[in-house]
Design goal:
It contains six helices and no strands. By secondary structure, the chain is mostly helical. The chain has one domain: Tetratricopeptide repeat domain (Serine Threonine Protein Phosphatase 5, Tetratricopeptide repeat, Alpha Horseshoe), CATH 1.25.40.10. The radius of gyration is 14 Å and the shape is globular. The model has no long low-confidence stretch (mean pLDDT 97).
Length: 103
């Protein structure tokens, strides 16, 4: 809980910092606060679609809670964003996760 409080403190100074929001969302996942984590991941990606790392974590969260159709969609959006960014590593991770879910 201390890490969450610290990240919230940092975010008060820079509320739209994608890195801090992503870190906070990961802490929420660890704490079992899926709704809060999902909201943050979605906020990041709607505001900053080039923030590639959040696609994987959002899709994994959705997959874990049984929302497979949305997970597939976010994996696909992430693959497209990774391709645009030239991030082959992220593209491959997203593709493998997508294929594991779809096939």
């Amino acid at each position: 809980m201390e890490r969450i409080e610290k990240l919230l403190e940092f975010l008060r100074a820079t509320p739209s910092d994608s890195f801090l929001q992503h870190a906070l969302a990961l802490e929420y996942v660890k704490a079992g606060s899926d709704t809060s984590a999902r909201a943050l991941f979605e906020e990041i990606l709607y505001r900053d679609p080039a923030y590639i790392g959040s696609y994987y974590h959002l899709a994994k969260l959705l997959e874990r809670i049984g929302d497979e159709q949305n997970a597939i969609s976010w994996y696909e959006k992430g693959m497209a964003a990774a391709k645009v960014a030239g991030d082959q590593h992220a593209f491959n991770e997203l593709q493998v996760a997508h294929e594991d879910l779809v096939y």
